[in-house]
Design brief:
- This protein folds into 2 domains: 155 residues, Quinone Oxidoreductase, Chain A, domain 1; 138 residues, 3-Layer(aba) Sandwich (Rossmann fold).
- Helix content is 31%, strand content 24%.
- The chain has 13 helices and 15 strands.
- The strands form 3 sheets. Strands 3, 4, 5, 6, 7, 14 and 15 form a 7-stranded mixed beta sheet that branches. Strands 10-9-8-11-12-13 form a 6-stranded parallel beta sheet, sandwiched between helices.
- The longest helix is centred in the last third of the chain and has 16 residues.
- Bound molecules: NADP nicotinamide-adenine-dinucleotide phosphate.
- The site of NADP nicotinamide-adenine-dinucleotide phosphate (NAP) has 25 residues, from helix 2, helix 5 and helix 6.
Amino acid sequence: MKAIVFERFGEPREVLQVRDVPMPEPTAGEVRVRMRLAPINPSDLMTVGGVYGRLPNLPATPGFEGVGVIDASSGGWLAKLRGLKPGRRVAVLNGRGGNWQEFVTLPARHVVPVPDDLRDEQVATFFVNPATAIVMTQYVLQMRRASWLLQTGAGSALGRMIIRLGKHFGFRTINLVRRKELANELMQLGADAVLSTREDKIVDRVAEITKGAMVPCALDCIGGPGVVDVIQSLAPQGRLLVYGTLSAEPTPFDTRTLMVGPRAMEGFWLSEWVKHQGTLRMLGLFRQITALMRVGVLTTPVAATYGLDQLAQAIEHVERSARGGKILLRLG
Ligand SMILES: NC(=O)c1ccc[n+]([C@@H]2O[C@H](COP(=O)([O-])OP(=O)(O)OC[C@H]3O[C@@H](n4cnc5c(N)ncnc54)[C@H](OP(=O)(O)O)[C@@H]3O)[C@@H](O)[C@H]2O)c1
């Protein structure tokens, strides 16, 4: 079978290769999935680049999520109870990475059976962004109705989910993007305001929009110098969750800005959060994601799908600005 493999960390276009590898066999407690689609997420490329929070032993295959069909099961009675038998379509939540290949083996508890009415393109992106959007807004920040949330990188797949969650649950969003031309699109999704980090004076505009109250909560996935504006837009006791570093730039700032208020800045990483959750909470989260995906709240726009023989084009496309949606890999 074919797999995308990297032997050293580096630029994805330089280090990723398609290779023939032996078919994996499921061991006790595992299922084997014939993969159909997997997204190229920022976390996949950061892993290949060697700059992610946890790195695999090399050689390795990237891919933290995707959709496929169970092909063989050694998952035991629990897998049978969850309907995990050959032929069942599942979301593949592969926290250790490895979904970018034709077949993958993993613990049965890491696959989620999905209803037939969800399209493969949506199931391919079932967990990483939807779970992060729900957990950050509902479990960590516990956003209340009518409360303001300021977010950076609002045009991303995850940023759009946060906007739709705001509309769904009733919290209000101020959305920062680098390209002002995204404003109409995001307003149509339910954004309450869209500001451009290139054109607007962020702190002044946030003060105007919130009538001087500023925001109790903020999310940042960009990093770099712009984070200072986000901190200064926080109300007293405000909280900033940092969950990404798309700019790859450091944030030089005067720590005194946190003392005024005071305001808090903390990190969020889904894989750390998941480690501390029990089975029931995870099953509840899967049900919530399924329900919100069905009503269009947690959907992901897809820009293009590429086959394994088009890996170079896929990587080139994912690195473009204004790409307009996720890039998926077709594996089967
Ligand atoms: N901590 C966690 O557990 C967790 C979980 C899931 C995702 N994440 C993070 O969430 C973020 C979004 O992920 P995603 O899959 O939704 O991303 P995505 O759909 O690939 O979108 C990336 C977006 O970021 C924007 N962007 C990229 N570089 C930028 C820069 N230097 N300055 C301003 N904007 C920039 C792009 O803007 P243009 O449209 O202008 O090109 C695009 O809208 C990533 O940082 C990811 O690592 C974190």
